[in-house]
Amino acid sequence: MSAPLFRWGILGTAQIARKNWQAIYHSGNGTVAAVASRERLRSQQFIEECQRQAPMKTAPRALGSYEELIADPDVDAVYLPLPTGLRKQWVIRAAHAGKHVVCEKPCATSVADLQEMLAACRQHRVQFMDGVMFMHSLRLPQMRAVLDDGGSVGDLKRITSAFNFRASPDFFTSNIRAHSEMEPYGCLGDLGWYCIRLALWVMKGRMPHRVTGRILVEAAATGSPAPVPVEFSGELFFDNDVSSAFHCSFLVGIEQWAIVSGTKGSLRISDFVLPFFGREPSFEISSATHVTEGCNFQMKAESRSFSVTECSDSDPSAQETSLFRNFTEQARSGTLNESWPEMALKTQQVMSACLESARDGSPVLLDQSGGAPI
Question: Could you point out which of 118, 131, 154, 242 has its C-alpha 20 to 30 Å from the C-alpha of 26?
Answer without folding.
Answer: 118
